[in-house]
Amino acid sequence: MESIQILDAKKHVGETVQIGAWVANKRSSGKIAFLQLRDGTAYFQGIVVKSEVGEEIFQLAKNLNQETAVLVTGEIREDSRSKFGYEIGISGLEVVGESHVYPITPKEHGTDFLMDHRHLWLRSSKQHAIMQIRNEIIRATYEFFNKNGFIKIDPPILTGSAPEGTTDLFETNYFDQKAYLSQSGQLYMEAAAMAFGKVFSFGPTFRAEKSKTRRHLIEFWMIEPEMAFMHQEESLEVQEQYVAFLVQNVLDNCDYALDVLGRDREVLKKYTKLPFPRISYDDAVALLQKNGFDDIQWGDDFGSPHETFIANSFDQPVFILNYPKAIKPFYMKPHPTREDVVICADMIAPEGYGEIIGGSERAIDHEYLLEQIRAHGLDENEYSWYLDLRKYGSVPHTGFGLGLERTVTWLSGIEHVRESIPFPRLLNRIYP
Ligand code: 4AD
Ligand code: MG
Fold first, then answer.
1. 224 in ligand 1 pocket by Cβ < 6 Å?
2. Relative to the CA of 399, which ligand 1 atom is closest?
């Protein structure tokens, strides 16, 4: 008899198979027990009929506690009433691991309680669906960049530099030196682009941000492509194609997860249409002021109410172009005809999910960059390797960073970024 994963049920209809699973829930009458089972790939029903299995197995099934691990044997059948579409008619049942008083019950629990039990909460159907979407985004990311001629490069996690400003760094001891956990691999990816042309990274990044919002994590994963011989306009095209590709793949490959999450496919389909709208920072400020946002002046950074308003003015993700130089990092390319803005863009997701991509064309002039490094109060000795890139064949180049968790949160249609990563690191939470 074959051991299978229930996800492959379609290929085994009518066959008797064995499946290792956990009991998510159950209900029973005097003659029949319905087990809600979970084998890691999907949730499905197991049916135990007393007259078929006999008294002993029936009693065992009836008394199974939530999250008991079992080996079930039985026939795979189609089940048109369930979301999943298949069930197993159980003929044999063996307990592998017992479970007593499982803390997460089908009733409602508060967020703190669930976060304290994140190691168990991951077993619930909603979390399972979110992790499937996350996995699909990861898979599709590699597919997109591989088929478009990018090579994956892994920048270091322990670094001596602070590309995104020094306020939110995690500092650690590196023997007798200071080191930081990476905020962004970008500067290393620029070196890699000069070596390999088109590159992307995909790794964890850290920000000691004292922000307690539904969009901020302390540890999050970022995809950072960097492209040599490329200007910003072309980068925006790569960005919108990449995001539309992610949405399309989630639509194509995450049917079950989208059902569990109740995500409207028609809404997602709108995000596969290209191009995405573009609005300048200047026009975005004017739009906000015209609509009663008295708190925003030219030069200010946008907060989440501003981003949400701008996003709601469009039906798709929107690029906000060319922010004030004063609120952006040192490495961005200055505008050719204006002193006050840089060549950059943030992509704002629809539906109030905020910024999912930050990117820019990079300054390539050695003297300008050195001046900026000094103006930002950074130690030029720590950046001498980076400045070297502008001495030996400096070329126009551009790149961006997409936040994985914000993208998962958006495409899943969930409330808070904390559910988009298996074990979120949040302000005041590093457990479990
Ligand atoms: O806009 P950011 O800070 O850009 C950079 O780090 C650039 N060096 C990227 C590049 O050009 N290579 O961050 C990029 C993205 C944001 O748009 C957001 O999606 C995500 O990373 N992000 C966060 N996600 C979760 N929690 C946080 N605290 C985040 N900070 C940024
Ligand atoms: Mg940003």
1. yes
2. 11
Class of residue 287 by CB neighbours under 10 A (exposed 0-12, middle 13-18, buried 19+): middle
Locate 313 and state its tokens: 């003015």
Contacts 24+ apart (CB under 8 A), 237-240: 237/275, 238/148, 239/319, 239/345, 239/347, 239/357, 239/359, 239/400, 239/402, 240/274, 240/275, 240/276, 240/317, 240/319, 240/347
Q: From atom 31 of ligand 1, which residue's Cα is the shortest distance away?
A: 403
Cα 211 to ligand 1 centre (Å): 14
Ligand 1 contacts CB of residue 219 (under 6 A) = no
Q: How far apart are the first and last CA of the chain?
A: 39
- The label of the residue with tokens 């995001």 reads 243
**pLDDT of 171-196, one tens digit each?**
999 999 999 999 999 999 999 999 99
- Give which of 164, 58, 111, 198 is closest to 419, Cα–Cα: 111
Minimum-distance ligand 1 atom for the alpha carbon of 225: 12
Helix axes 304-312, 281-290, angle to 10 degrees: 90
Residue type, position 136, single letter: E
The residue to mutate among 169, 186, 217, 220, having the most atoms of ligand 1 within 8 angstroms of its beta carbon, is: 220
Q: Which residues pair with 151 in a beta bridge?
A: 199
The answer, yes or no, to whether any atom of ligand 1 lies below 6 A from the CB of 164, is yes
Give the residue among 348, 359, 352 at the shortest CA–CA distance from 322: 359
Place of tokens 């914000």: 406
Which atom of ligand 1 is nearest to 404's Cα?
19
Tell me if the bond preceding 163 is cis, omega within 30° of 0.
no
Could you say which residues of the chain have pLDDT below 50? Answer: none
Integer Cα distance of 273 and 124 in angstroms: 33
Q: What is the pLDDT of residues 234-273, one digit of tens each?
A: 999 999 999 999 999 999 999 999 999 999 999 999 999 9
